[in-house]
Specification:
With 718 residues, the protein is mostly helical. The chain is 72% helix and 0% strand. The longest helix has 58 residues, at 31-88.
Length: 718
C-alpha cells in the first residue's frame, strides 16, 4: 500500500475530527486540553508500536539463530554420509572375496546337522521299534520324545534342502529323505490312535488312572507348541515341515464331543412301543448328563489345563448333542402326551434344579450357548400339541352330544332317567364329563408353562362354545321332533329341565376354570370368556321357552275360549288353566333356583301375552255394568282398570298407561274398548289422540312392556 496515500487519508481524518471539535468559539478555550490528550494518545501509540517492533525483532533473532544451527547440522550430516559412502565402496569386493568362506560355513552347518542327527539317521530302525514298544507299554511320554527327535532330524534335513535347492536335486532329494523317514509316519499314526482311544474313554479313564489323561494332554500341548513354531518358521523361510500343523487340540475336542454324543445316543430305548418310553428315555438322559457333569467338575477339571475351561466346554458339548438328539426325536413324530413330556422336560427339567441348575454343578446359565430348541421349533411343538387337544375335544364332545341325544329318545323309566346322584335337580353327566376332560388337559399343560396353559384354556373355551352351539341346535331339533310326534316322547319336559340345568352348570364350571387358570394380569381375549357365558345363557333362555311352550300346548284351546259367550257361562275355564299349568309346573321343582326364576318369568310373560291377546280379540261386547274382569297378572289388572274407567277421566288413565307401557299401540287400546259397547269408536279414538299428545317421557318401563310388541292382529278393527 502507498505510504503517501495513507498519510493523506490520516490528514483528512484529522481535519474532520478538528472541525467537529471546534465548531463554536467557546471550544477554542479547551485547545490546550485537547492538545494534551492528543500528545498522551500519541505517546501511548508510540510505546505500543515500539513494543510490537521489539517483539518481532526478538523472534527474528531466534529464527536466524536456529537456521544457523540447522545449517551446521546439515553440513555435518552431509560429511558423515560422504564418509559412509567411502567406507562402503570396497564392500562388494570383500563380499566376492568371502564367497569361498560362505560355502565352507554352509558345509560346516550341514555337516553339523548331519552329525547332530547321525545317531537317529544310522539307528532309525532300532529307534522305531523302541518307540513302538513304548506305545504298546503305554509309556506315551517316552514314545513322544522319540517321535519328536526323529521328526526334528527329518525336518532339519528337509530344511537344509529347502534353503539351497540349487546345490541339491530339489524334489528328488526331498522325496528320498521322506521315504527314508517314512516309518516316522507309522509311529505318529500309532501314537495318534492311542491318544484317540484314551480321549474317547476319558470319563472312564479319569476315574481309574487320571495320570494317563494328564500325560495325553501334555503330549497334545507339546504338539500345539511345535505347530506354532513351525508356522512362525514358515513366515520367515517359507518351509513347513510335513504334517504340520497337526492341530491335535482340535482333534481332542472333536473326540470328546463324539464321546458325549455316544453317551447320549447309547442311552436311548430301542422299544418305542412302550407307553412311557419317552419319559424313561429323558430320565435316563438326565441322570447320565448330571452324573457325567459331576464327574467332569470334580475329576476332569484338575487334569486339564486351565485354558481348556473343560467343564464349560463339556456343558456346550452336552447341550449341542442333546439338542441334536431332541431334534431327531421331534422329526420321528410324537404322539399324544409325548408332546407334554418333551416340552416340560425342555422348559422345566433341563434348566431346573434337577439338571443344569443342580446345586452340585453351579452352572452359570450365561455360559450355555442358545436354547435346546429354537423358538420357532418350540412354537411348532406347542401348536401341534394344541391341535391334538382340539381333536380330542372335538371327538369327545361329539360323543357326549350323541349320548345326550340317545338318552332323549330312549324309552327308559322316569326313575332311571337321571342315574347320577345330583340331588333334587335334574342334570346329566355332560357338564361334569366336559369339565373333567378340560381340567385334566389344563393340569397337564400347567406342568409345562403358564403361556401354554392359557392357550389351552382359550382353546377349551372355543371348543366349549362350539359344543354349546351344537347343543342348542340339537335341542331345537329335539323340540321339533317332539312337536311332530307329541305323545311319542313321554319325558320331554324332564329332558329340557336337565338341558336348562346343564347350561347353568356349564356357566358355573366355566367360571371355575377361569378362576383356576386365567392369569390375573391377562386382559386380552376376555371377550372370548364373555361370549362363552353369553352362549350358554342364550341356550338356557331358549330351552326355558321350549319348556314353557310345551306346558302351554294343552291350554291353548282354553285361551281360545276366553272372552266368549261360553266363557261367560262356564267360569271354570280359568280354573282349568290354573290346574293344567299347576300339573305341568310340578316338575319345575327340579330346576335350579336361578333357572326356576327364569322359567317363571317366561311363563308369566307368556300367560299374560295369551290372556291379553284373548282380551283384545273382540270376541265379546258388553255394557259397563255387565263386565267382570278376571285378572291373573298385574298387567291385566292395569288393563282392567282402564276398561272400567269413567269416560270423563279416560284421558288421564290412558296417559298413565302409555307412560308405563310405551309399546302399547292405538290398535291395542281400540280392541280393548271393543268390549265396551256403550262407548262409540270415534270417542275412543279422540281420547287416545288426546292422551298421546299429553304423554311425556315414560314414567317407568315395566318388565312386561315388550309383550305388546309380540301381540299382533291381521284383521282390521272397525
Amino acid at each position: 500500500m502507498n505510504m503517501k496515500h495513507l498519510e493523506d487519508e490520516a490528514r483528512k481524518a484529522a481535519l474532520n475530527e478538528i472541525k467537529n471539535m471546534f465548531k463554536t468559539p467557546s471550544q477554542l478555550e479547551k485547545l490546550s486540553e485537547y492538545k494534551r490528550r492528543a500528545e498522551m494518545k500519541k505517546a501511548s501509540a508510540d510505546a505500543l508500536l515500539k513494543s510490537k517492533i521489539q517483539n518481532q525483532l526478538e523472534s527474528v533473532k531466534v529464527g536466524i539463530k536456529q537456521l544457523k544451527v540447522c545449517l551446521s547440522e546439515v553440513q555435518d550430516a552431509t560429511n558423515r554420509v560422504y564418509d559412509v559412502n567411502n567406507l562402503l565402496e570396497p564392500l562388494p569386493i570383500t563380499y566376492n572375496n568371502l564367497e569361498d568362506f560362505r560355502s565352507e560355513v554352509i558345509k560346516y552347518a550341514q555337516y553339523g546337522t548331519a552329525m547332530e542327527h547321525l545317531t537317529n539317521i544310522a539307528n532309525i530302525e532300532e529307534k522305531v521299534k523302541k518307540t513302538l514298544q513304548f506305545i504298546e507299554d503305554d509309556k506315551l511320554l517316552d514314545a513322544h520324545q522319540c517321535l519328536h527327535e526323529l521328526e526334528i532330524s527329518r525336518d532339519d534335513l528337509l530344511y537344509e534342502v529347502h534353503i539351497e535347492p540349487e546345490k541339491y536335486s530339489g524334489t528328488v532329494d526331498k522325496i528320498t529323505l521322506r521315504k527314508y523317514f517314512d516309518k516316522v509316519d507309522l509311529i505318529l499314526q500309532r501314537l495318534q490312535e492311542k491318544i484317540r482311544l484314551i480321549l474317547s474313554r476319558c470319563l472312564h479313564i479319569v476315574r481309574i488312572k487320571p495320570t494317563m489323561i494328564v500325560t495325553t494332554l501334555r503330549i497334545i500341548e507339546r504338539e500345539e507348541n511345535s505347530d506354532e513354531y513351525a508356522l512362525q518358521q514358515q513366515k520367515f523361510s517359507g518351509f513347513l515341515p510335513p504334517g504340520r500343523p497337526k492341530k491335535w487340540r482340535d482333534m481332542a475336542m472333536n473326540i470328546l464331543y463324539k464321546g458325549v454324543v455316544d453317551r447320549i445316543e447309547g442311552s436311548k430305548l430301542e422299544n418305542r412301543s412302550e407307553k412311557l418310553w419317552l419319559v424313561k428315555d429323558l430320565e435316563i438322559t438326565r441322570k447320565i448328563i448330571l452324573n457325567d457333569l459331576r464327574l467332569i467338575k470334580s475329576l476332569c477339571t484338575p487334569c486339564f489345563p486351565p485354558d481348556y475351561n473343560i467343564f464349560h466346554q463339556y456343558i456346550k458339548f452336552y447341550h449341542k448333542a442333546l439338542a441334536n438328539y431332541l431334534n431327531r426325536i421331534i422329526k420321528s413324530k410324537l404322539e399324544g402326551n409325548e408332546y407334554v413330556t418333551l416340552l416340560s422336560w425342555i422348559l422345566n427339567t433341563y434348566n431346573g434344579s434337577e439338571l443344569m441348575s443342580h446345586s452340585d454343578l453351579k452352572i452359570d446359565s450365561s455360559k450355555i450357548t442358545g436354547p435346546l430348541l429354537q423358538p420357532e421349533q418350540l412354537k411348532k411343538l406347542e401348536t401341534d400339541y394344541l391341535e391334538i387337544i382340539e381333536r380330542n375335544y372335538q371327538e369327545w364332545m361329539n360323543n357326549i352330544l350323541e349320548k345326550e341325544k340317545e338318552e332323549w329318545l330312549s324309552k327308559i323309566t322316569e326313575e332311571n332317567m337321571f342315574q347320577e346322584n345330583y340331588g333334587e335337580f335334574y342334570l346329566t353327566s355332560a357338564p361334569f364329563t366336559i369339565f373333567e376332560m378340560i381340567k385334566e388337559h389344563l393340569e397337564v399343560t400347567n406342568t409345562i408353562s403358564a403361556d401354554i396353559t392359557f392357550d389351552a384354556l382359550l382353546l377349551s373355551m372355543r371348543r366349549m362354545e362350539i359344543f354349546a352351539q351344537n347343543y342348542r341346535s340339537d335341542v331345537t331339533d329335539f323340540k321339533y321332533r317332539h312337536l311332530k310326534n307329541y305323545y311319542q316322547i313321554k319325558y320331554f319336559q324332564d329332558h329340557i329341565i336337565a338341558v336348562i340345568n346343564n347350561n347353568l352348570k356349564m356357566i358355573e364350571l366355566s367360571r371355575h376354570l377361569k378362576l383356576l387358570y386365567w392369569p390375573q394380569s391377562q386382559a386380552k381375549h376376555y371377550e372370548n370368556f364373555k361370549r362363552l357365558i353369553k352362549t350358554f345363557q342364550t341356550n338356557s333362555e331358549e330351552a326355558a321357552v321350549y319348556l314353557v311352550e310345551d306346558a302351554f300346548i294343552e291350554i291353548e284351546s282354553i285361551f281360545n275360549e276366553l272372552f266368549t259367550s261360553k266363557w261367560l257361562q262356564d267360569r271354570t275355564l280359568i280354573k282349568s288353566i290354573c290346574k293344567t299349568l299347576d300339573k305341568s309346573f310340578s316338575k319345575f321343582i327340579h330346576l335350579k333356583p336361578d333357572n326356576l326364576t327364569l322359567v317363571m318369568n317366561i311363563a308369566q310373560k307368556m300367560l299374560t301375552m295369551n290372556y291379553i291377546k284373548a282380551l283384545l280379540s273382540k270376541r265379546l261386547s258388553k255394557q259397563l255394568n255387565e263386565i267382570e274382569i278376571i285378572t291373573p297378572i298385574d298387567l291385566i289388572l292395569a288393563l282392567s282398570d282402564i276398561l272400567i274407567a269413567d269416560i270423563e277421566l279416560l284421558v288421564l288413565d290412558l296417559t298413565t298407561l302409555l307412560g308405563n307401557y310405551p309399546s302399547i299401540s292405538e290398535d291395542h287400546i281400540l280392541r280393548l274398548f271393543y268390549i265396551r259397547s256403550d262407548i262409540k269408536p270415534a270417542i275412543i279414538r279422540e281420547k287416545i289422540h288426546d292422551a298421546m299428545q299429553a304423554k311425556k317421557s315414560p314414567i317407568s318401563t315395566a318388565k312386561c312392556d315388550d309383550i305388546f310388541k309380540e301381540i299382533t292382529f291381521n284383521n282390521k278393527l272397525w
